[in-house]
C-alpha cells in the first residue's frame, strides 16, 4: 500500500480531473472489435476505433498468428537487440519497406515507441525541429526527448512554415520538418506537396507520421503516395494499430539511415519486442492492404455517406478530408451529454475534450470503417439527429 499522504495527494488530483470532466471512462469489450461490438453486455455500432479497413478480426490475420504461435511459441524472450527475433521479423521489415517504397525499414513495439525513439536518434544538439502545431502527442514527446531545439508552425500553413524555415535557415546543423500525414482529431491532410517543396528550398529533412494515412490514402500506401512525394520524404513513420488492424510501429528510409536508427533509438533497444504471432499478423495485414483495393473503396464510400449525413443534419464536421469525421460541439458539458445519449442508443462514441483538444473545440470523433453497412450508418445518423435536436445542438 502507498503511504497515506501519497494516496491522499493522488486522490485529490484525481478528483480535480473528475470535476473538470477530463477523465476517461473505460468500457469493457466482451468480444472482438469490429463495425459492431459487444460492450458491457450490449451490442453497439462502433464509431470510435481506428479499424478503418475492418482487419482487426480478419480470419487471415488470426490464422497467421496461430501458425506463428505453433512454430515460434508466444513470448519474445527479451528485447530484440539482445535475444534476437524470429526470422519472420526480417520478412516483416522487407514487407514494410515494400509498403513504404523505401530501401529498408525498422519495426518498433508501438507507434508511440517509434516516434519517441526515432526522433531523438535523427536529430541532435545543434539541430532544429520545425513542427506542426497539431502534431500527435507522441511526436511532441519525441521532440522533448531530443536534444534539438524546436519551433512550431501554424497548422498546415505553408506560408508560416516558409517564414519559420527562413528564420532558422543556416543557423543550425540540420533542419527537420515533422508533420502528421492525417491529423487524428480533425481528419485533415497535411499539404505534403508544399511541405516537401519548401524542404528542397531550405535543405531540410521531412518526417511524416502517417498513422492515420496508411490504408486510407494513396491507394492504401498513405499520404506521401497521395501527393506523389514518397521520394521527397526522408522518414516514413507509421503504425500497424490502425488500418492494418494489429499492433506495432514502423519507420522506413534508406538502408544506412535505418541501421543508424536501429542502433540509436532507445525505445527499440530497450523495449521487449512483441510476440511472433503479432509479427505474422502484421505481414498478412500488409499483404491484404497492398492487394485488396476494394476495401479502401468501400471505406471511402462509407466516409462520404456518413459525412454528408452529418453535414445535412447541421453538425460541424470541421476540416475533415478523411474517414475521421468530427462532430464539433465546442462545449465540454454538451459534448459529454451528446456522447452519453448516443451511447444509450447503441452508438459507441467517446467525448474528446480538453486537454485532448483546445477548449472551445470539444467534439465527438467519428471513425467509419469499410465494414460498416448502410444500415449501421443510418442508425448512427438517426441517433445523432435525435440527440442533437434534444440538446439544441442542431
UniProtKB/TrEMBL annotation:
Q: In the record, what terms sit under GO molecular function?
A: pyridoxal phosphate binding; transaminase activity
Which terms are listed as keywords in the entry?
Answer: Aminotransferase, Pyridoxal phosphate, Transferase
Signal peptide, first to last residue: none
Q: Which Pfam families match?
A: Aminotran_1_2
- Domain Aminotransferase class I/classII large as annotated: residue spans: 43-382
Instruction: Tell me the InterPro entries matching this sequence.
Output: Aminotrans_II_pyridoxalP_BS (IPR001917), Aminotransferase_I/II_large (IPR004839), AON_synthase_class-II (IPR050087), PyrdxlP-dep_Trfase (IPR015424), PyrdxlP-dep_Trfase_major (IPR015421), PyrdxlP-dep_Trfase_small (IPR015422)
Q: Required cofactors, per record? A: pyridoxal 5'-phosphate
Q: Which Gene3D superfamilies match?
A: Aspartate Aminotransferase, domain 1 (3.90.1150.10), Type I PLP-dependent aspartate aminotransferase-like (Major domain) (3.40.640.10)
PANTHER family in the record: CLASS II AMINOTRANSFERASE/8-AMINO-7-OXONONANOATE SYNTHASE, LD36009P
Q: So what family is this one in? A: Belongs to the class-II pyridoxal-phosphate-dependent aminotransferase family.
Please give the name of this protein. Aminotransferase class I/II-fold pyridoxal phosphate-dependent enzyme
State the species of origin.
Candidatus Korarchaeum cryptofilum
Q: What is the lineage of its organism?
A: Archaea, Thermoproteota, Candidatus Korarchaeia, Candidatus Korarchaeales, Candidatus Korarchaeaceae
